[in-house]
Amino acid sequence: MDREEFFRLKKVQGKKKRDAEKRAEDRSKANAEHVEHGGELHKDEGIGGGAEGGKDMLDEGKDEDVIF
After folding, report:
1. Rounded distance, CA 61 to CA 2, Å?
2. 3-state SS, residue 7
3. Angle at CA 55, nearest 5°, toward 53 and 59?
4. Rounded Cα gap, residues 32 and 38, in angstroms
5. pLDDT by residue (tens digit) across 5-56?
6. What's the pTM?
7. In the chain, what is the straight-line distance between the N-terminal and C-terminal CA atoms, in Å?
8. Mind giving me the DSSP string for 35-65?
């Protein structure tokens, strides 16, 4: 029984690895096509980054240091 479980788990791991490689390949192709068609690729594009392109939210509106 343990041997069967081991082989089943190895098959599942192999499939997950193949699927992850396929997704990474598809993403890189999509990014290459986007840039190829004149689009500028931003860091956060696809997550709502758009023109902001990964702007650091912590740098917005810096306040002066307060000394007590």
Report:
1. 60
2. helix
3. 170
4. 10
5. 999 999 999 999 999 999 999 988 888 877 666 665 555 555 555 555 556 6
6. 0.45
7. 69
8. HHTTPPPPTTTTTT-GGG-S--GGGTTPPPP
If you search the block for the tokens 């990964």, which residue do you land on? 54
pLDDT digits (tens, 9 = 90+) for 43-65: 555 555 555 555 666 666 666 77
At position 68, the amino acid (one-letter code) is F
Between CA 64 and CA 46, with CA 48 as vertex, the angle to 5 degrees is: 135
Separation CA 23–CA 6 (nearest Å): 26
Chain CA centroid to CA 53, Å? 14
